[in-house]
């Protein structure tokens, strides 16, 4: 495996590195880890990587790696740079024949995501999109139980993703400049919906199997001189009987990483909270709440395959990400894997279409806006 970005002090790089090792399927061989080559070399040296395969940039990475004999060449490349680089880098890598493991949001625009989807098909490579939270055993159990009809016909699906970390930044124009997620040149069209709203949206479509038809949204930039949303609500319409909502905020003061999802059916409901990921709550009328936990025989195959420790040994974000890596490894090796083992470029297209519809709805006066897919 190779890595682009994810170098010294990056946020999510370490999660990818550790996750890739957990399943013992990948070895980090090299990469272009940083904008600063010296810092990249120091980082690689600390990890005891081969300096010959620590490259100054992605172009050199591709040129040098593709010149190697096939059995020596890096097979899969992880893209963990700021958002605006995902599309050009993923495109280059796919065209050069690498399998790609990419961070979200997959591109800057929906049209770019569609283009990547076509390239993935054309070049027959595996493309994994790291919507990390879909790797949790209890999220997979939720998906299984919904598919098995345990909560009956779905009537409502809501996801909330609240963080507060932009509150100390947003009120000071100088401080804003230190945050690339608030810079349209680096973040793309959206801050909040692109960064975390899209995770919440993906969680709904992942767990329910529903397809969102249209959205009505209200986004907030908080200040006129702040170009990107930092908070927003989107009503979702799946079909006429089934409604839902994504609400996301990065100015929900003092919230940490409060992602939760709740799905309500005719026979009951299922709820999951990212900050307590080992509990899945099953609600039924007239019954006490049932709490399901990983590592127990009552769980289905998907959750069981995603659990590495015996019951009572909490697993977290590294393990969840590792499950996406394990799914992608099976796909790369041509082995059978369960549907939903890892999000794909299809999820990327859906996510980008959601982001664009949400932005358009809010801009056009909070009108219902179709997700044409
Ligand atoms: N899946 C998740 O839960 C999750 C969580 C956090 C971040 N992310 C996503 O991961 C991506 C990275 O976010 P982050 O918070 O780790 O960012 P970051 O700013 O902490 O790290 C970015 C890294 O990319 C490197 N980089 C930038 N430009 C580069 C280039 N041209 N070539 C090589 N390296 C380059 C930087 O030097 C840095 O090491 C974002 O797209 C973000 O949306 C996803």
Mean pLDDT: 97
Question: Helical stretch count?
Answer: 13
Question: Judging by the overall fold, what is the CATH architecture of the largest domain?
Answer: 2-Layer Sandwich
Number of strands: 14
* Classification by helices and strands: alpha/beta
- The fraction of residues in strands falls at 15-25%
Main β-sheet, spatial strand arrangement: 13-12-11-10-6-9-8-7-14
- The rough form would be described as globular
Detail the poorly predicted runs.
none
Helix content: 25-40%
What would the CATH topology of the largest domain be?
A: Dihydrodipicolinate Reductase, domain 2
H-E string: EHEHHEHEHEHEHHHHEEEEEEEHHHE
Q: What hetero molecules are in the model?
A: nicotinamide-adenine-dinucleotide
Give a topology summary.
Elements: E1 2-5, H1 13-22, E2 30-32, H2 37-46, H3 58-66, E3 76-80, H4 86-95, E4 99-102, H5 110-123, E5 127-129, H6 137-147, E6 154-162, H7 167-170, H8 173-176, H9 184-187, H10 192-208, E7 214-220, E8 231-239, E9 242-249, E10 258-265, E11 268-273, E12 280-283, E13 290-292, H11 301-305, H12 317-332, H13 345-363, E14 369-370
Parallel strand pairs: 1-2, 1-3, 3-4, 4-5, 6-9
Antiparallel strand pairs: 6-10, 7-8, 7-14, 8-9, 10-11, 11-12, 12-13
The site of nicotinamide-adenine-dinucleotide has 22 residues, from strand 1.
